[in-house]
Request: fold
Amino acid sequence: MGLFSFTKEIAIDLGTANTVIISDGKIVVDEPSVVALDRHTDKMIAVGEKAKLMYEKTNDNIRTIRPLRDGVIADFNACEQMMRGLIKMVHTGRHFFTPSLRMVIGVPSGSTEVELRAVRDSAEHSGGREVYLIYEPMAAALGIGLDVVAPQGNMIVDIGGGSTEIAVISLGGIVADKSLRTAGDDLTADIQEYMSRQHNMKVSERMAERIKIHVGAALTDLGDDAPEDYVVHGPNRITALPMEVPVCYQEIAHCLEKTIAKIEAAVLGALEGTPPELYADIVHNGIYLTGGGALLRGLDKRLTDKINIPFHIAEDPLHCVAKGTGVALKNIRNFSFLM
Reply:
């Protein structure tokens, strides 16, 4: 049988909100981290975008699950089924045999040994023969194109769906880091709570996400970059009658204040633990923002004004971690920081 075996290499950014898979240097899968299962048989019905379309719309026979919460696996079985489904999307074409998989997967830098083991086990059960793990801030730095093995300090702030990863990198290692279980999902929850409290309107998680995309902001004054008001439709929380409420970016900026302040404090905490020589490099080079949270309007300016160090939004921030895991995949033998 050895004559017929071959190894396929894939890099995975296993995110709370989205999972991205890279194969042969290209993004081949970019799907929401959602899986739909039959409630009675536990068999997978849909995965990715198809499952997200069912999210918050299912009947009693179907349950839709986001297997990752706060950047780590919350439902092991659902995560394994989701990974299997997404990896199947990579195997286009017909094969008489299944290839063995060599994987590199991005994980939060604050993961415990148990959480790392859960990711590794899920990957192995999904067909991974060789599984390597890389911390997400390190992957993000590689994805941006930084020289992570150089003797100089680079700082990454990766704001994902479930966690914010902050790390100072030098000589191929993480010198100081903070892993915060506060990120995009918390911003979405803030908007849900605000709409309920301020406008007496019930909004779903998906609607709150849309509000965040259309009028989400970190500053109450965006000048010429200000988005138009977004009209939200939903039921009144008390009477259940339909409502139509225009929402402006200023009120969303106010409701996101507490969560953004936590991220600011974490960045300052990581800087406090940074050796002076590396701190000087960071002041000179600036700090790089990656992840979906980097797209929040005005966040880079707010952080720059607060911390007095320039913040740069990476090119294609949503895919930096995925691209970095792809770089690591090509250089598995050269990188000592792969686990």
Remarks:
- The longest strand covers residues 7-14.
- The mean pLDDT is 89.
- Residues 184-199 form the longest helix (16 residues).
